[in-house]
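Why predict the complex rather than its parts? Because the way molecules touch one another can change local conformation, and only a joint prediction can capture that. The input here totals 973 residues.
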Amino acid sequence: MDIAFQGEHLLPGNIGRVFVILSFGAALLSALSYYFATTSTNKLDNSWLKMGRIAFWANSISILGVGVMLFYVIYNHYFEYHYAWAYTSRSLPVYYIVSGFWNGQEGGFLLWTFWQAVLGNVLIWRAKSWEKPVMAVISFSQVFLASMLLGIEVFGARIGSSPFLLLRNAVEGPIFSRPDYLSFIKDGQGMNPLLQNYWMVIHPPTLFLGLASVVVPFAYAIAGLWQKRYKEWVAPAISYGLFSAMILGTGVIMGSLWAYESLNFGGFWAWDPVENASIFPWLTLVGALHVLIVYKNTGHSYFTATFLVLMSFVLVLYSSFLARSGVLGETSVHAFTDLGMFWHLVIFILVFLALSVYLLVARWKEMPISKKDEDTYSREFWMFVGAIFLGLSCFHLILVTSIPVWNRMFGTKIAPPIDLVGHYNVIQGSFAMVIAILTGFAQFLKYKKTDVTRFFITTGLYLFFAAAITALVVYTSGLYKLHFVFVLVMLGSIYSVLVNGKVLADALKGKLKLAGSAVAHIGFALMLVGSLIAAGTRKVVSNNESGNINIKGFDRGTADAKVGGDVHENIMMYRNEPVKMGPYTVTYIGDSVSVPNYYYKMDYKRYDANGKITEEFILKPNAQINPQMGLVSSPDTKHYLFHDLYTHITAIPEIKDRSAAGSGDEAAHGEENDDKNYEEPIPHEVAVGDTIPYRDGYIVLKSLNKEAKVQNIPLTGDDVAISAKLEVVSHTKTYEADPVYMIKNKTVLDFARKVEDAGLKLRLSKIIPDKNKVEIVVYQQPQNKKPWIVMRALDFPYINFLWSGTIIMIIGFLLSIRRRNSELKTV
Amino acid sequence: MARNTVDKPLMKKSAIFGLIVIAIAIATIITTYSSSSTYGSFSDAKKTTDELHIVGHLDKGKELYYDAAKDANYFSFFVKDNKGEECKVIYTNTKPQDFEKSEQIVLTGRMIGNEFHASTILMKCPSKYTQDKIEVTEFKAKSASI
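Output of the joint prediction:
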């Protein structure tokens, strides 16, 4: 076993491993120190606190050390490390090396523990009297995250997965018995081309900051229960919770922007289990924030608020379990496979769940739960209802997403609903409708007691206006053709925009501190409006009405309409043959290669009634030929203010075929071989000025040149060379070709000329002096030999509402954070 | 105080609301359960008109038919389900990327005649996240350099 491997760089990995172990040890020490600091009865003894801080700083520095070493390994292309080999390659641009950093699971944990360390340092600096118990919880969570990176064997079981695992230890192969194995590993596997997108540089850090920050309100809730400071923890938890919900929401939407910009499923949300998992904690956290505010203002809903805060963090852990344990198996496209951390992740969840439940039960009698009911016409009651509905929406998502988990727990074999997207859309739409309406009318209510008559008049008035606008929107957008639930969601959203608009207008007049919630609600409602219209009334531009050749044994008439939902959304395009699609005339005009990307130039033209071009643009959807994944295509989108035109490639000829049919140099293949690429040649006897019709246009013999020259063939004595000047008109384009006829040393030769773009080969095969004519042979490429692509074009109306709604919501969160922070200072 | 006397004979509002929430939760579970489908085999598919999920793998020995020139939305292939039964599958869409490399396929759809018409295809490719392929890749590099 002791082979002296050559050329390996083991030092950075060893340093990295030391840092990993150090970060684990330091986190453990910090958690214990903070625990004893909290429980110590001697108020004057600060030694535990000091030790906790120093250990936490040591943990933070170790994490930085791990990150630096991992980056060093990746940046220098040390493919003896599995991580560098599996996720990066030499050809990867430097800015994607950064995203290679968090491509693997280990990098994900590293990012998470890094953010948690940053937040911990912020809390050491700012938490004051809360530092000890809060940091005890956060250090405890750091212990678990650090353990995920350990990758060491304990009693035969591997704990965690190290980012510094060597390739030869990760993968079996006879090659690794050679001491010089490294000289055969020239390059890494490279990054999944779908991840080579600028959104992938910023989406994961944002999402992980969002997920990591949920621990802060959680830690405050635990600390509050533990230290019996039941009321005080709420105010700081609101501030941190707002931050967390804002970042997490931004991270999730960035992910959907990435999907929309670079994936080809034709949308921004696919209800994939991993996507769903990322919004579980967001839903409960937003619910929690509302009831925390209720508690702060009225003293109601204490238990609900605490429970939702605690659950948010448990759900963060659960969603990471879903994504990383391999349990999702065949239900998710982008879940990770199991790295042997299944039970490790389960223990992580159970420990924090048990801690939460224990404290809730142990402190049940002491919790300040109000005995009195809220008034029906009070804001707190309906905010409470809204929080519960956010929880229910999350409950449903968990229920369906976790089907593989139920199967594993109970040994059942339930499959997800067949029309999964429809199922989610309708049920989540129903919850969204209730929530949107609540974000509206709860704003008219006051805390504690409201004037009922006035409330009903204003609510009714706004509802009436909202209904009128909804009717207009639903009619013009065509939303009424869909399930009625979506019309109701639209009504709720528009109502919410109107009411919150009024609240905002009032706030601008005076009570500026109230603006935050109004702005955030408007943003949320606009997001609903945008996603509803864009996803619901998305139009297929590339309707394939003609060009179908029925294939034997497949009769479309009998095919169920439901089967193959998007039949006929794809259109076959031959190069330079314009196709009419909706308002556009689209032509595939060529491709350019920038290895490994192939860009297909699609020319879009719009004509007015007089046939004048009113608009012209080129979209360049691309396809990557990846050695591991084959064809990977990314869309290109034309963005308008009120709609997007989305185009992507769904099939291309195999690249091998293309180079054979495409390049002009085929001497090696020989003429006869080349002729196979064409249909039966058709000879035409023509005189100068005559026209030859063919399938895609016509050819005109302009003139004959009796002194033609062919490169490298010197003419002597009796040799003759004649070229025909031909003008080829194919569709709207004109090309020229000059095939040559030659008699050299009494042998007849002829040099054919190709017009690639028109799929033609032309020969001047005979001179017929008595008729003053020549023979031109026309070779046409059969349709399927011509360069082609299959594309799909979609129109997403009003999608900008979704993106702008997101930005407005973020602004709303920022305003709220400012307000709550200023309250913190004064109280 | 007047309000309290009115409310007294009724249930507490929080109790009513709690019941409503439980009712919605139960309704959600039932809806989800009733709309969930089952994993089956091709012989199960022949017995029913409902759509179902079939887990199997691509028969790489048989023809994969896709000719975009004739119909860009017609793709057919043969799948062997987990019970070993084989069936022709028709997918009225473009051929998914990297289809040949899939090691497991989950189809949803139904039987029409003797052909299974798939509405969605989900495939697991070995090369995406795991490292199974290293031997092949490395062996090539080796033979090329010697």
